[in-house]
Amino acid sequence: MKILYIDSPIDPPGGGQKSLLILLKNVKADKKVFLPRYSYFCEILKKEKIDYEIVPIARLFKEIKKYDPEIIHCNAATVKYSFFSAIFAKILKIPFVWHVRVVEKAFLKDDIVAFLSAKIIAVSAAVKNKFSKIWHKKISVIFNTVSDDFLPSKIDMRKELGVSETEKLIGIFSRFERCKGHDLFVESAFALIAKGYKLKFILCGNGEKKEKIKRKVYYSSISSLFIFKNYTDNIADYMNACDMVVSASTIEEAFGRTLIEAMSLGKVVVATNLGGHREIIENGINGFLCEPNTLSLTESLLKALNSDAPIKENAFNTFKSKFSLDVHISQINKIYFQLL
Question: 94-114, pLDDT tens digit by residue?
Fold first, then answer.
């Protein structure tokens, strides 16, 4: 099996690149990656010794024909690079698999790439449902997974972070963007502390809104209870130190990678009841769902803090049965073999 992977990565790399890297490391095939330009993702591919080439659109048809893959797997959203890749695949009669990881609609552009695709992989039903029903027969829902090397080290991170045995640590792990709900997270944190709970909070990530959130915390009387960290390669250590992990997005998420990462570590998860979150969490069983406002998030965090249900165990078991690496790769391979 010879597969050409196409991507147009954001910089720094995001969840889509994490997911692509998992495929590149675990699918057994001759494979290569085409990218339209240099980005930090190139350094990651180089480190993992994965064959890649920077191929601008002007050379794309020629290089696809030269490589002559049996399948083209496109990891990019509805951008110019994926659009031309789909056209060239059609001309060369190569099955085109479009892996869609966003819920935002591109309308006619989505329809054109869907028409040109032999198969569409959606990371959730929320993503599938953005497409017109005429394309649903082409679409398979395959949830994201977590890399098998997403494991904490032997570092006692709670000690390093200054979290005592009597305190619980609640974390949020996402880019500091308006839609990610860091304001809700901080306001709920203030409310929980006011109720007398012994808690600390870690906010891990980068982004344009980070300084604004830091200022909001700094001017409070409890700023010492908040820990800010940049997104790093040892994110599993920070997440493993937490008792609870929150995804407070205020718009529909295509999936919810942070949630399954936390569930893989047996953590209690709390998330807004939007998009792909609803396909991961069964409220009160393997985690908690809330509405995207401070009051509802605070109430769900209180439920999580006071619950006697085996939430952690159920979260881990859900991860193993629905989101494990073996399940994911098996489903991807099934798509490939159907197209050969």
Answer: 999 999 999 999 999 999 999
